[in-house]
Amino acid sequence: MSHPTRETINVASEQAGQRLDRVLATGTNLSRTRLKALILDGAVAIGARTIRDPGYRVNAGEIAVVEVPPPEPAAPEGERIPLNIVHEDNEIIVIEKPAGLVVHPAAGHATGTLVNALIAHCGDSLSGIGGVKRPGIVHRLDKDTTGLMVVAKTDRAHQALAAQFADHGRSGPLRRGYLAFVWGAPERPKGTIEAAIDRHPSSRDKMAVRKNGRPAITHWQVLERYPGKDGKPVASLLACRLETGRTHQIRVHLAHIGHPLLGDAVYGTGFKTKVTRLAPPAPDALENL
Fold this sequence. Notes:
By secondary structure, this protein is of the alpha+beta class. About 20% of the residues lie in helices and about 25% in strands.
């Protein structure tokens, strides 16, 4: 049976006043996300005190001890689900996720997920990376969204990718771009939506723009406008770039400004009647979408 390992970090004078999770991240091979979870679980102590606040400000000369539990075996089982692999090496794998595929196991989706497919494809190399339920996952796409996903195959890759995704392109080279077909045509050629997002007050499976939610910023640009039967624009293709990564962010933000995604049964229900305005063969294309 595996036993926990112990990491000891001495706080240097130049680190005084910094966040505990940040200081631990510089002194261990663990990611800040993993360290935050360990701190909240009571696995970090300074002196005789257990510290459960990742934002605790350290003092020079303090000694922090981290009890790192052994990697847990991946709870999900591998399943032979076909993967469209765009790139793979010893550190990462890039796959094109199709619409309809859930990324990781959750309530109602215990099997048939991308994680199940990755475990079958990569084997034991994913064990312990990024948590039991989400081995190797550093970002995700909604079930009905298709696009490229990068997955870490090593701890080193997981830490590096997680840091880049958390940075959202502010200081690093990583950029995440999305293409979205939306109802209507924005008057301006481009814009920015800055509106906080939180759980919907009455529907827990939805998100909504809410004053006291988490900050969310989406930049958009019109690539093309599509005329309807009457020759007036009825739909558009937008390029979107995110500064934050909130659940359903693009869908919620675009619906908020009156341009929900075509085919979005959750946030675009009030636009179903617009289908009659689409010129052939657009209605058939929308049905397939």
